[in-house]
Amino acid sequence: MSHALVPPGRAVAVLMPVLPLVAVVALAGLPPTGDGAGPADVVSALAVGYCVIRLLRERRRPLSPRAAVVLGLPVVGLALAAMGAASPQAAFGGLGRYLQIFVLVPATVLVLLRGRSCFRALAWSFVGLALWQGSVGVYQYVTGTGASYQGETVRAVGTFGATDVMGMATAVSLGVVCATGIALGRGPVRQRTAAAGCVLVLVLPLALSFSRGAWIATALACAVQLALTGLRRALKVAAAVVAAGAVLVGGFGVGTAMLQERFDSIAEVADTPDQSVVDRYTLWAAAAGMWREHPLTGVGLKGFPEYRDGHATLALSSGSDVGGAGEEYHKQALLSPHSMYLLVLSEQGLIGLTTLAGGWLALLVCALRRLPRARRRGPGLDCALVAVGLLLWLLTDFFYGDIGGPSTVLTGVALGLTAWWALSRGDRADAAPRGGAPTRLEGAAAR
Question: What tens digit of pLDDT does each residue of 366-416 get?
Fold first, then answer.
């Protein structure tokens, strides 16, 4: 009844600040146009500018002291690493990218989100992007128009193309985590049912991405989300997921042979690793070697490619095979260690890793501290689970991957969602625009 008494325009006004962020997530799914900034990166810069204008108009302090320290901590290590870069171009390019993803975009999300309705709208945009990319990926597998994998063009990569095989896996994984958090919350039954259905649908394209790192990170994040809702509920949901997966893969035979081989390779990385694993181990060793020579500040931003050959062994191949999904077959140079932690350690040293990873751990602690109250009181449990799940996914995935490509901007938005839950001041219920009192509709949406 209260929903009918409130003008629809008022609800739109509450969600208006989040629309630029939703646009960033949506545009991340556009096909890449080149090596420069993509549409999502451009819109993320516009969202930062829009945030600054709103702050100036409203004349309010953008961040609490704690939020400013946690989000601003990486700037210390980045500044030192930029000074050690090989060229001004590398310094400004690397500094701008890191600030965008780990400082500016998360801070913008924290400032622009005005309540749980905005949070949920942005979380649902991740689910929508995952469904879109997943549908494209499944089509690529079925029609044999995906990226090359074991001599067949069956790898699901979505619109990100063969040069960014982790793009679709990242988008789908983040969508799964968001949908899982919403499904496990205490929102309307219809909303939770829709979210649970999205999780089941997205399992297939995630599997067809053949990304072992994304599988591991998603499984861990969702398992923790389930555990945080209670052991009994976690066991019931886990049993349902296993049963659905058995029917999907076993009953319908979806990619059974290739998927089984890919799953088995996770346990075989220490025994008989394939060339991709050998390359990764070699790159990790090269990054560690760079760090040992420059322990405090690293070799400088974007310095890994320049120092790689001097620290890598002959086991490193000439590059990874890229082909399919509209790309001619070619070799793609291995220009990063494929581990965010080792990339930061090699280029920014201990100072950079401590400040960057320290900020992430501070976010995780703050998010977990606020979760028990959400479990007791009810409202916001879905937001808490989404926030914790997204950060856990990123922290796990960073062991196997690093930033790069059109999907990178999604990392900044995901960190912003976690930062909003962990660091926002006062009650995280929905606030009316321009400081007005919340309407009855907004209060209902917050619950």
Answer: 999 998 888 887 678 999 999 999 999 999 999 988 888 888 999 999 999
Burial 366-398 (b: 16+ CB within 10 A, else e): bbbebbeebeeeebbbbbbbbbbbbbbbbbbbb
- At residue 279, the pLDDT reads 83
Q: What are phi and psi of 20, to 5 degrees?
A: -60, -35
What's the chain's average pLDDT? Answer: 83
Higher-scoring residue by pLDDT: 324, 195: 195
Q: Which of 326, 324, 328 is nearest to 154 (CA)?
A: 324
Assess whether pLDDT exceeds 80 at residue 443: no
3-class DSSP state of 408: helix
* pLDDT at 227 > cutoff 80: yes
Expressed in percent and rounded to 5, the helix, strand and coil fractions of the chain are 70, 5, 25
Of the candidates 161, 106, 105, 112, the one whose C-alpha atom is nearest the C-alpha of residue 137 is: 161
The answer to whether 37 touches 406, Cβ cutoff 8 Å, is: no
Q: Is residue 180 pLDDT above 70, yes or no?
A: yes
- Residue 180 is encoded by which pair of tokens? 């899982």
Element (DSSP H or E) covering residue 323: strand 320-324
Sheet holding 327-332, edge to edge: 152-155, 147-149, 320-324, 327-332
Residue with tokens 């991709």: 276
Token reading at 312: 């890598």
d(CA 202, CA 204) in angstroms, rounded, equals 5
Total residues belonging to the chain: 447
